[in-house]
Write a structure and sequence with these properties.
mainly alpha
């Protein structure tokens, strides 16, 4: 079940491919997932379909902003060379910030992202994106947990017992370890992710589909380029 060496090293590519496959699934299923939800919820809520559709888009944009905040918060406690490293950095355990509530906040945010961007996909695309993101994230988590367990031993086992794997606890489950957040580095590391949020906000505001894909494409390009740059720097 755990991810292979290739999957971990190329996880950025796999994440991109998930969306690269999900969006074109309109060719098999022509109905947008948000529109399908409007048709189902509209009569039950007795709401105007257009108003409900805009409300769902606004909620999706809000969800993606929350996901971007979670990733930025998490990355502010990990250097970009750790977040985007080709190899797992298991020498030390960070138990501050969001890591006091959930062991894998970065992957949790990615699941939220898949749900939010799913509003722009077909029903089949939404199902594929969310399922693939969950499965791949769990495969990566199982690989990382195995290596952390091997390198950290009992302290990591105790951490795992206290803190949920993927779905956050409302309250911190462990005491702070004293690390300070580097918010500037966090925002730099997750600039591409904020681009995703900007793309969805732009569409929810303007309903301009071309603008959405231009911003989304630029953000994906930034993601891949920044990942390559960070890996090259860490290899020096």
């Amino acid at each position: 079940m755990k991810a292979s060496n290739w999957e971990f090293t190329n996880r950025a590519t796999v994440f991109g491919l998930i969306f690269g496959v999900a969006f074109p699934l309109y060719g098999l299923d022509h109905q947008n997932s948000a529109v399908a939800l409007v048709y189902w919820l509209g009569p039950k809520l007795q709401m105007n379909p257009d108003s409900l559709a805009r409300l769902l888009l606004d909620f999706a944009a809000f969800l993606l902003v929350i996901a971007a905040l979670v990733r930025t918060w998490a990355s502010s406690y990990l250097h970009a060379s750790v977040v985007y490293a080709a190899d797992l950095k298991s020498e030390s355990l960070v138990a501050d910030g969001p890591y006091r509530r959930v062991r894998n906040p970065l992957y949790f945010a990615n699941v939220l992202m898949a749900i939010a961007l799913g509003a722009m996909m077909s029903r089949l695309g939404f199902l594929f994106a969310v399922t693939a993101m969950l499965v791949f994230s769990y495969r990566l988590i199982l690989r990382e947990e195995g290596e952390f367990q091997a390198s950290q031993g009992q302290p990591y086992a105790a951490y795992c017992q206290a803190v949920p794997r993927l779905w956050p606890s409302v309250r911190p489950r462990v005491a702070s370890s004293g690390h300070q957040a580097g918010w500037t580095e966090g925002f730099k590391a997750e600039a591409w992710y904020w681009g995703f949020a900007a793309a969805l906000i732009a569409y929810a505001t303007t309903l301009n589909l071309r603008l959405f894909f231009v911003i989304l494409g630029a953000s994906l390009a930034l993601f891949w380029v920044s990942s390559i740059v960070v890996r090259k720097k860490s290899a020096l």
